């Protein structure tokens, strides 16, 4: 029996019931695939449902304010996906009259759409035999064929794509692609895969040679950078605070934050008050207290943020303020969102 026949047979018995699988509408499939980049299905599902309700068509998403898109995306992470999603929605609505490209090559030209997403949409919506390769697929193929080429190397990326393309079921490519993704997510899992009841156990190289826990192989990761954030949570006497939008190309572009003083190491209250930025913000009396006695450590892919939230009470500040009851209208990083939950509950 061919690899794809065994896989699809397993899938028809074990597939997950997911809302984007009930349609071949490329808008919904595209939306789900962008959300599931580097995100588990359980985490992405409620966001998909929120976006589907708020923006039922690509035109609705295109016409939305970016701040609303980012607010609905809040907590999902990798915010460049949301900005690319919004940009591409406007392009499809305004330049393509709402019609999605119908081929892998044309889909690949869309901002925020890479090989995996283009393959998924092309196969599921337009029946094009373009094989998907994501973390689940790398794991299944590296174990089954015993491939030791690092999956995050240029050689590995090319090798696995070519192999995946040779295995796809040409008659039902969309079903095959969803089958191998589900098989990797539910059966051939990163930890504790279900090898003893696997339909491929008799022909799986990793199972035969005891390499299941060793595959797939990744090259050494980049060194993680440590950053030290000091947020100034301003609380004026008339119940106002300061939020500003992050600009530039760094993390959290377009999201809002409290005034930030970043340092090269952890600092105490005295050094914070002596800093130039603090002095420029508070020309009048200000009392300061540390909300979290232990740094909040927020881990991103290549950097760890060691964060202190300093509560600053002052009559007024020299920059634009907003009422505290308007804070929740602004999209903020999950780091600040969690702080706000704790801080506002304590204020009640």
The number of helical elements comes to 15
Helix content: 40-55%
Estimated structural class: alpha+beta
Main CATH class of the largest domain: Mainly Alpha
Number of strands: 9
* Shape field: globular
CATH superfamily of the largest domain: Hypothetical protein, domain 2
Please report the distance between the alpha carbons of the first and last residues: 65 Å
CA gyration radius, whole angstroms: 24 Å
By CATH, the topology of the largest domain is: Endonuclease III, domain 1
Low-pLDDT sequence parts: none
Pfam families: HHH (PF00633), HhH-GPD (PF00730), NUDIX_4 (PF14815)
GO molecular function, one term: oxidized purine DNA binding
Catalytic activity: Hydrolyzes free adenine bases from 7,8-dihydro-8-oxoguanine:adenine mismatched double-stranded DNA, leaving an apurinic site
Family: Belongs to the Nth/MutY family.
């Amino acid at each position: 029996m061919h690899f794809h026949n065994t896989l699809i047979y397993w899938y028809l018995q074990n597939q997950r019931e997911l809302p984007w699988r009930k349609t071949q509408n490329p808008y919904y499939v595209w939306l789900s695939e962008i959300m599931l980049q580097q995100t588990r299905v359980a985490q992405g599902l409620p966001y998909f449902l929120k976006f589907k309700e708020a923006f039922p068509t690509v035109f609705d998403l295109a016409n939305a304010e970016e701040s609303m898109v980012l607010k609905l995306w809040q907590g999902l992470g990798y915010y460049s996906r949301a900005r690319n999603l919004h940009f591409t929605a406007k392009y499809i609505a305004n330049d393509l009259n709402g019609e999605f490209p119908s081929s892998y090559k044309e889909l690949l030209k869309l901002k925020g759409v890479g090989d995996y997403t283009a393959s998924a949409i092309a196969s599921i919506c337009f029946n094009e035999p373009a094989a998907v390769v994501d973390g689940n697929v790398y794991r299944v193929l590296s174990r089954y064929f015993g491939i030791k080429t690092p999956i995050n190397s240029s050689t590995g990326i090319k090798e696995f794509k070519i192999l995946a393309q040779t295995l796809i079921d040409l008659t039902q490519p969309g079903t095959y692609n969803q089958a191998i993704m589900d098989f990797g997510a539910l059966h051939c899992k990163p930890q504790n895969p279900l090898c003893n009841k696997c339909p491929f156990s008799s022909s799986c190289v990793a199972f035969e040679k005891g390499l299941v826990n060793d595959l797939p192989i990744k090259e050494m990761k980049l060194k993680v950078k440590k950053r030290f954030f000091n947020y100034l949570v301003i609380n004026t006497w008339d119940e106002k605070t300061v939020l500003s939008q992050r600009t530039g190309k760094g993390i959290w572009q377009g999201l809002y934050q409290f005034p930030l003083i970043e340092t090269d190491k952890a600092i105490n209250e005295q050094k914070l008050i002596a800093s130039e930025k603090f002095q420029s913000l508070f020309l009048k009396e200000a009392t300061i207290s540390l909300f979290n006695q232990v740094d909040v450590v927020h881990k991103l892919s290549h950097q760890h943020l060691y964060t202190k939230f300093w509560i600053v009470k002052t009559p007024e500040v020299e920059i634009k303020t907003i009422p505290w009851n308007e804070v929740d209208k602004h999209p903020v990083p999950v780091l600040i969102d969690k702080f706000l939950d704790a801080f506002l509950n304590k204020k009640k």
